[in-house]
Every structure is written in structure tokens, then in C-alpha cells.
């Protein structure tokens, strides 16, 4: 851990050097980057309800892997981070409207989203799994095993989980929610068979609710590349973010964040 903290400190130093040694002048052909530098702030769009990636802590303050990543991004740009919490299915609308500069919210890169906005990454790869009390569901190896008429599932509205269920599991009775905590409660109260979510969310939910009766043995059902969403009209901002993310990867800073937010959960799931 000392080694990782040392790497993290070194990366911050390198980010600050990069931010402070270049002139704060941006090409007029880079509208998003120009706005960020001019306003002195990076406006992040995030759902705040996908722990441990993006969530609110006990004081109602945004926290999580994605928030730390956005904070590093703002520091590298030498600007202030401003966070806007929005429903997940409204995040790309806000990005397209210029209401936020970037979306970092455990968002999977997929073709339909990529036709609307640009993506950089992935900075993490994940997969879908189920939060359930029923062991036969938790051990499903693929979506075909779950595609049965008496199956009831809940998903986050506008997520790839919703796309997967509607496309690959048409027999399933599907319920959508704008807050994952509502879905978790529905499963805990036996009102629905299970909730499909990304692997880190499943780990966090099971760890946070040790007495809910959730099954902790589950399989990853899909491949989910998680990326940073950016305005489609700013090639410079895309290039800058790509280089920024590569710097974090090569200096093992992404590993530091993964250990901070997912390390303990991964170890407990393996035991």
C-alpha cells in the first residue's frame, strides 16, 4: 500500500506540472475545453447512486471511484471540480446540451451511446451480475438461463442492464427504477426476484447488506467497458482526456483507485 500511495503522490505531482507549465490558451476549435478553461471549472455529470463508483457518503457528499477520477481530471486541468447529480438516463442529454462538461458515472461504452457522444477509455472493465436471494439465479452462466416467463427483474432506468434484459431476455417481467437503492430494497423485501447491475455495484450491495439474505456467489454475465463520456464536437478535449487516462494507467494510479474502492470488496467476495 505504501508503494501505491507513493505512486499516487508522484502522479499528482506530474499532473500539476503538466497543468502549470503550459499556457492557458486553448484552440478556438475546442469549444468544450475553452469553456472549461475560461470558467475555471470542470462540470461533472454523475448519477451519484451507483456505489462504489459514484455515490453520496453519510454527509451527502459525492464520493466513489468516479468522483476521485473526475477530481484528478480537474486538478490536471488546473480548474475546480463542480459536480451535478442527475438521473442516469438524463446524463447524456445534459452533456449534449452543454450543461455538464464530462460524464463519469459507471457508464458502459456501447454503439448507441457512442453515436451521440464521444468516449475515452475504458478505464475499467466490468460485467453484469444479479443481486438476488435465489441461488439458482445467482449461479446463472448466461442470459438464456434467466429468460423465462416467471422471472421478475429490476434494473436502473436507461442503463445497459435495461438494454440487455429487453433485448436478450424478452420473456422477463421488467421493472425500472431511477435509484438503485429502490431496486435493492425490492429484492430485500421479496417483491422481485433479482436486480441486474454491474459487478462493482453487486459487490458493494452485498457487502453493505450482510443480513439481507443476498447470495454472494454470482457469475459475470456480460463484458462492460466503462468509459468517460465527452462532447462529440471537441477533438482536443478527447485527445487531452485520452492522454490523461493513459498517464493514470501507466503510473498505476487507476490501480490505486481500484484498490481504494474495490479491493476490500473483491477480497471479501473471494472468501
Termini separation comes to 21 Å
- Domain unit count: 2
The chain-level mean pLDDT equals 87
Strand order, biggest sheet?
A: 7-10-8-9
- Rg calculated over all Cα atoms: 19 Å
- In which range does the helix fraction lie? 40-55%
CATH C-level name of the largest domain = Alpha Beta
CATH superfamily of the largest domain: Periplasmic binding protein-like II
Taken as a percent bin, the fraction of beta residues is 15-25%
CATH fold field value of the largest domain: D-Maltodextrin-Binding Protein, domain 2
Q: Specify the CATH architecture of the largest domain.
A: 3-Layer(aba) Sandwich
Number of strands: 11
Secondary structural class: alpha/beta
Contiguous low-pLDDT stretches (5 residues minimum) are 1-10
For the largest beta-sheet, the strand count, sense and barrel status come to: 4 strands, mixed
Number of helices: 11
What does the overall shape look like?
elongated
Following the backbone from N to C, one meets helices and strands in this order, namely HHEEEHEHEHEEHEHEHEHEHH
Explain what the structure shows:
The chain has helices spanning 2-20, 31-39, 65-77, 91-96, 111-114, 135-138, 160-168, 180-188, 199-208, 235-250, 253-270, and strands at residues 41-46, 55-56, 62-63, 80-85, 102-103, 118-126, 128-132, 152-156, 173-177, 194-198, 224-230. With 271 residues, it is an alpha/beta fold. It has two domains: 2-126 and 225-270, D-Maltodextrin-Binding Protein, domain 2; 128-208, D-Maltodextrin-Binding Protein, domain 2, CATH 3.40.190. It has a four-stranded mixed beta sheet, sandwiched between helices. Helix 1 packs parallel to helix 3 and helix 9 (199-208) packs across helix 11. It is elongated, with a radius of gyration of 19 Å. The chain starts with a helix and ends with a helix. Residues 1-10 have low confidence and may be disordered.
Amino acid at each position: 500500500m505504501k508503494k501505491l500511495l507513493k505512486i499516487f503522490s508522484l502522479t499528482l505531482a506530474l499532473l500539476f506540472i503538466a497543468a502549470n507549465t503550459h499556457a492557458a490558451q486553448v484552440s478556438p476549435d475546442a469549444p468544450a475545453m475553452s469553456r472549461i478553461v475560461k470558467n475555471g471549472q470542470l462540470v461533472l455529470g454523475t448519477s451519484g447512486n451507483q456505489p462504489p463508483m459514484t455515490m453520496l457518503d453519510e454527509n451527502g457528499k459525492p464520493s466513489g471511484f468516479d468522483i476521485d477520477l473526475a477530481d484528478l481530471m480537474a486538478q490536471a486541468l488546473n480548474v475546480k471540480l463542480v459536480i451535478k447529480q442527475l438521473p442516469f438516463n438524463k446524463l447524456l442529454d445534459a452533456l449534449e446540451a452543454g450543461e455538464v462538461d464530462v460524464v463519469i458515472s459507471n457508464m458502459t461504452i456501447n454503439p448507441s451511446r457512442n453515436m451521440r457522444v464521444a468516449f475515452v477509455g475504458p478505464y475499467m472493465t466490468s460485467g453484469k451480475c444479479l443481486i438476488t436471494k435465489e441461488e439458482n439465479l445467482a449461479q446463472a452462466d448466461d442470459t438464456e438461463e434467466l429468460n423465462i416467463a416467471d422471472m421478475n427483474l429490476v434494473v436502473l432506468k436507461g442503463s445497459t442492464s435495461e438494454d440487455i434484459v429487453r433485448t436478450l431476455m424478452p420473456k422477463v417481467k421488467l421493472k425500472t427504477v431511477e435509484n438503485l437503492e429502490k431496486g435493492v430494497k425490492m429484492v430485500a423485501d421479496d417483491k422481485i426476484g433479482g436486480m441486474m447491475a454491474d459487478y462493482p455495484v453487486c459487490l458493494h450491495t452485498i457487502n453493505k447488506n450482510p443480513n439481507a439474505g443476498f447470495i454472494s456467489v454470482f457469475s459475470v454475465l456480460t463484458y462492460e467497458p466503462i468509459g468517460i463520456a465527452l462532447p462529440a464536437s471537441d477533438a482536443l478535449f478527447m485527445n487531452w482526456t485520452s492522454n490523461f487516462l493513459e498517464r493514470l494507467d501507466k503510473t498505476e494510479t487507476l490501480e490505486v483507485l481500484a484498490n481504494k474502492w474495490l479491493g476490500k470488496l473483491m477480497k471479501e467476495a473471494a472468501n
